[in-house]
């Protein structure tokens, strides 16, 4: 920095320093002191020379003015222009001076050269003081009323200055304002000085330029017109304003224009009661509105408006109110716009760009503005919103449905589209309403938004199915968008969407046939062309597997809707369609006339021949969807309300009533349908036996009365007739009438004194037993208590001796036998005295039923044997180990199914091992011997079962396993390296994993001698085993070892304070 710059700034400091006197006296004294120093002090010689040059060029300077404030302002302006002239000359010299060599610049002593216009902090403070005097005394006093923020509303000092300079009439105010503004604009030509001007006085400069360039002619109080600026001067101000709007930070410009448009009312902090308050004049409001509209419609104008209003916010309640105001401003077409279409075309795409911010707070505010703007446009301009907002937003998804080769969609397009549609950042509206994404504003979904999303729903579902097969960050957005639509769409629209997604409805808006989604490089997805399969079998397999996978993905979505009625409604809709097939088939056969092929065209003949196969294909697809729903979804999701259960039963009874007028032979020969019908009636009986049955439930079940009447009169099965009659009577009387043997979990809803007694026929006992068995088969958990529950959940059954239950456990009827086995299991668990005495008979009965082919029977037997082994372990385990080792020992056992029986006994032993707990150390030694011997069995299934049981048992043994560690390690290592069957190798590796998890931190103590051998065996599997599943198990085991050794080598540091009491 040269010596001239400090001298000039020293002169400015002399002029602006306070002296502690009255303001006018200070201004006169400082001005006189400056003139004296300029004439006498040799250090100011350069300043004096430059000042004189400026005076010569300044035609506005008047040295004989009698106004002390304007004279002071003139001196400030002269010194500022002197500084500008000096710095400009120094900058030119600096730019033409050659830079030092590169070798010299690399020395540590050499600091980089600074430009001469760089000012120190003290110099900036001095310059800022001078600018404040210039604005306060030479600019603000000459602004018209309502233009800019008055000095009186800024500070106490400003109010004093305002009172001082406005005490009398000011001549040539317009020219003084023009002079001050011109000098300030000359200062802004230097970047270092422009920063000081714009950061502190931008609003004042804008107000001055607006008044000088656009204020209409006004009349002074004396009635004469004030002397106007020339047309050239006005045009200069207009061009300066236009240039200023283009080069200054746009949010600052917009903020200042909004303040100008609102007038002095907008700023009330620190205002004086004597300060005049008034709104901006009409011409200024119109000018600011026009300028704001131009700034809004230019590129990134929307972002600038949002930043101007919301910048510096904290995300509180007031910020959300501002967001709504900004959104309202954006969607309102200004009057200055040529046409609404032009305005929305330029603004709407900028609104969508607000969704792409990364900063958390900024993103929340900008997304709030975007979502509110979308909502306001949909309410006020739906056609414009659809054309300029929703269509561009969803364009990548719409491209996926086209069949052109150029329709490939890149990864970034899909990622941006899905992230725009789904914005997971939850924001809170000021009135307490939650807003989750662009599709939900105020938790009130718009019909237009739902309609727009419905058109691309198949594409989003296809993308979701793809992400379920890969690791992709688009999975969560796709799932949430689909769930949101299914939750908020109307029931008919949601059911139609589910039919389309499941393949039951015509393919519409699906992904183009020649394209498919492929993984992207950044974890997303892209749409690319598909390579066609050359083999028809491969193409068919790919199509069928794809359809099956789509159904499974759809079931996962429905499982997430467990708190909604939609899964049940869709399930019942399919069942209703299923019930109508039989009747429709009979009507088609009766009403179908004989075709006259001779009078039909070839196309009509082809359509007629293909129609039956098309209907059959549609029905098979519906059956497949039903099967997948039943297999994947729990009954609590499918039928979560009583009304849905009733609808389900109504569909079942309707199917049963179809064809009742036909001959009874087919019905007697179809036991599956009769069994299903009995189960359905058992469900009705369970509902009627509930603890609280409301009037609405009875009203819903009254729809079953006509169907029950038809079954009671026309069905061929006598038991079903009696069941239908009883159920119809209970429903019709709302529980006032109940048969004696009707299931009674709760008392009737009517007064018991009015209950009608019924003389039951002998077959009622069998009917009641059948109903109870059916109920237990439908929901065993609701009928039988778990082994860990207390006795308060026992069955509500008539008391029967043990012999009756033993007899029913041999009944050929599957539900009756299974129910009896469950009851016997409960007796064993509850230590029933009769069951304790007859434990040998019960054991034989369970072993016999273990060989039954029905899974409901042998699983009940497995549960019973597990309960026996838990209650009497020593005796029962010995018998089970013998059967597992040598096969079933009962005389009636089928030797051909010996392998299946051994595996079932292995399941019993595995459950018993899990239930041993601390007794495993005492009871586990014989089991380990048998399981180790089983690893050498000729059959691979027995070997795998033995290893599985061994792993379960070893988890419970803890330190007892120490003496057997060598033998166990040798067995597992040999199996891993020599076993030919992959299933057995997997089981051996899994035993090591279970062993490590069971021992935990005790591993280094119990398996210290063999841990290295096990580690080497696992590494051998990872390197050499061809089976991927075995390698995966080995990797899991190695992770367990890694965690154990890390904890062993680097134990957790515990900060403990020990207090020892000395003797």
UniProtKB/TrEMBL annotation:
Residue limits of the TANGO6 HEAT repeat domain?
296-563
UniProt GO BP:
protein secretion
In the UniProt record, the signal sequence range is none
Instruction: Report the residue ranges that make up the RNA polymerase II assembly factor Rtp1 C-terminal domain in this protein.
Output: 803-919, 1010-1043
Q: Which InterPro entries match?
A: ARM-like, ARM-type_fold, HEAT_TANGO6, Rtp1_C1, Rtp1_C2, TANGO6/Rtp1, TANGO6_N
Ranges of Polar residues composition bias in the record = 751-795
| Disordered: region residues | 739-795
Pfam families named among the record's database cross-references: ARM_TANGO6 (PF23565), RTP1_C1 (PF10363), RTP1_C2 (PF10304), TANGO6_N (PF25267)
Q: Which domain of life is it from?
A: Eukaryota
The UniProt record lists the TANGO6 N-terminal domain at 3-294
Q: Which family does it belong to?
A: Belongs to the Tango6 family.
The protein in question is named Transport and golgi organization 6 homolog
The gene for this chain is tango6
């Amino acid at each position: 920095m040269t010596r001239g710059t400090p001298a000039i700034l020293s002169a400015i400091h002399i002029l602006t320093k306070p002296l502690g006197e009255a303001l006018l006296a200070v201004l006169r004294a400082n001005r006189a002191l400056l003139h004296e120093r300029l004439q006498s002090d040799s250090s100011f010689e350069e300043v004096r020379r430059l000042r004189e040059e400026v005076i010569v060029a300044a035609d506005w300077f008047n040295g004989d003015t009698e106004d002390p404030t304007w004279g002071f302002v003139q001196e400030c302006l002269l010194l500022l222009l002197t500084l500008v002239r000096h710095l400009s000359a120094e900058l030119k010299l600096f730019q033409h001076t050659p830079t030092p060599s590169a070798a010299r610049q690399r020395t540590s002593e050499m600091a980089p050269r600074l430009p001469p216009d760089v000012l120190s902090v003290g110099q900036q403070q001095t310059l800022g003081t001078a600018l404040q005097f210039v604005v306060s005394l030479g600019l603000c006093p000459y602004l018209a009323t309502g233009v800019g923020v008055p000095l009186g509303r800024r500070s106490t000092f400003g109010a004093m200055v305002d009172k001082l300079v406005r005490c009398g009439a000011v001549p040539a105010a317009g020219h003084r304002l023009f002079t001050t503004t011109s000098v300030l604009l000359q200062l802004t030509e230097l970047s270092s000085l422009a920063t000081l001007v714009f950061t502190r006085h931008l609003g004042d400069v804008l107000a001055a330029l607006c008044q000088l360039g656009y204020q209409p002619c006004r009349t002074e109080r004396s009635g004469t017109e004030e002397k106007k600026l020339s047309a050239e001067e006005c045009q200069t101000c207009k061009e300066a304003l236009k240039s200023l709007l283009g080069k200054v930070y746009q949010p600052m410009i917009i903020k200042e224009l909004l303040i100008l448009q609102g007038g002095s009312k907008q700023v009330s902090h620190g205002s004086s009661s004597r300060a005049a308050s008034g709104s901006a004049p009409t011409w200024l409001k119109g000018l600011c509105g026009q300028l704001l509209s131009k700034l809004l419609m230019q590129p990134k104008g929307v972002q600038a408006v949002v930043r101007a209003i919301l910048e510096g916010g904290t995300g509180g309640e007031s910020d959300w109110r501002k967001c709504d105001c900004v959104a309202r401003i954006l969607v309102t077409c200004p009057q200055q716009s040529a046409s609404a279409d032009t305005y929305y075309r330029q603004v709407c795409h900028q609104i969508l760009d607000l969704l792409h911010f990364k900063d958390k707070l900024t993103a929340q505010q900008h997304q709030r503005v975007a979502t509110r703007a979308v909502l306001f446009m949909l309410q006020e301009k739906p056609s414009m919103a659809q054309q300029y907002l929703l269509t561009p937003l969803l364009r990548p998804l719409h491209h996926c449905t086209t069949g052109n080769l150029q329709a490939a969609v890149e990864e970034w397009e899909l990622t941006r589209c899905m992230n725009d549609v789904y914005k997971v950042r939850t924001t809170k509206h000021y009135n307490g309403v939650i807003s989750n994404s662009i599709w939900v504003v105020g938790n009130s979904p718009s019909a237009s938004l739902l309609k727009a999303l419905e058109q691309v729903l198949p594409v989003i579902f296809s993308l979701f199915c793809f992400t379920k097969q890969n690791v992709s960050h688009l999975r969560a957005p796709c799932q949430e968008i689909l769930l949101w639509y299914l939750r908020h769409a109307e029931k008919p629209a949601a059911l139609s969407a589910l039919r389309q997604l499941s393949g039951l409805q015509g393919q519409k808006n699906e992904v183009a046939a020649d394209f498919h989604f492929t993984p992207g490089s950044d974890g997303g997805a892209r749409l690319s062309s598909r390579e066609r399969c050359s083999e028809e079998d491969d193409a068919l397999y790919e199509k069928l597997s794809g359809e099956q996978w789509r159904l499974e993905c759809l079931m996962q979505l429905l499982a997430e809707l467990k708190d909604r009625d939609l899964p049940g409604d869709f399930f019942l809709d399919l069942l209703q369609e299923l019930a109508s097939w039989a009747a429709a088939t009979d009507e088609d056969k009766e009403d179908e006339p004989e075709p006259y092929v001779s009078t039909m065209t070839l196309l009509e003949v082809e359509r007629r021949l293909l129609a039956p196969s098309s209907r059959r294909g549609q029905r098979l697809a519906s059956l497949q969807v039903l099967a997948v729903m039943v297999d994947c979804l729990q009954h609590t999701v499918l039928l979560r309300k009583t009304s849905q259960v009733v609808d389900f039963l109504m569909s079942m009874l309707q199917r049963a009533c179809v064809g009742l007028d036909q001959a009874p032979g087919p019905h007697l020969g179809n036991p599956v349908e009769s069994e299903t019908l009995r189960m359905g009636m058992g469900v009705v009986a369970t509902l009627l036996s509930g603890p609280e049955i409301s009037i609405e439930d009875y009203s819903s079940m009254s729809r079953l009365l006509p169907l029950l009447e038809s079954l009671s009169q026309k069905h061929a099965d006598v038991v079903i007739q009696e069941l239908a009659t009883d159920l119809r009577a209970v429903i019709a009387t709302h529980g006032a009438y109940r048969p004696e043997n009707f299931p009674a979990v709760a008392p009737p809803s009517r007064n018991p004194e009015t209950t009608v007694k019924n003389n039951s026929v002998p077959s009622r006992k069998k009917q009641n037993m059948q109903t109870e068995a059916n109920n237990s088969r439908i929901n065993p958990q609701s009928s039988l208590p778990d082994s860990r529950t207390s006795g308060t959940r026992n069955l509500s059954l008539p008391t029967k001796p043990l012999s009756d239950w033993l007899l029913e456990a041999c009944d050929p009827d599957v539900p009756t036998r299974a129910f009896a086995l469950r009851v016997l299991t409960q007796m064993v668990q509850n230590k029933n005295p009769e069951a304790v005495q007859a434990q040998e008979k019960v054991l034989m009965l369970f072993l016999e039923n273990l060989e039954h082919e029905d899974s409901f029977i042998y699983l009940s037997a497995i549960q019973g044997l597990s309960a026996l082994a838990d209650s009497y372990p020593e005796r029962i385990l010995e018998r089970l180990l013998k059967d597992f080792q040598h096969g079933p020992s009962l005389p009636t056992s089928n030797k051909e199914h010996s392998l299946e029986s051994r595996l079932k006994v292995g399941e019993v032993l595995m459950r018993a091992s899990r239930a041993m707990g601390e007794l495993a150390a005492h009871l586990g030694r014989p089991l380990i011997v048998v399981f180790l011997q089983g690893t050498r069995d000729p059959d691979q299934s027995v070997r795998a079962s033995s290893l599985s049981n061994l792993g379960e048992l070893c988890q419970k043994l803890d330190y007892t396993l120490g003496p057997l560690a060598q033998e166990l390690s040798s067995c597992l290592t040999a199996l891993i390296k020599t076993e030919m069957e992959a299933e057995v190798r997997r089981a051996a590796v899994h035993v090591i994993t279970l062993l490590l998890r069971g021992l935990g931190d005790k591993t280094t103590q119990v398996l210290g001698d063999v841990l290295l051998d096990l580690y080497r065996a696992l590494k051998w599997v990872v390197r050499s085993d061809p089976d991927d599943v075995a390698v995966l198990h080995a990797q899991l085991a190695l992770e367990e070892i890694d965690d154990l050794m890390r904890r062993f080598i680097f134990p957790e540091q515990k900060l403990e304070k020990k207090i020892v009491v000395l003797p």
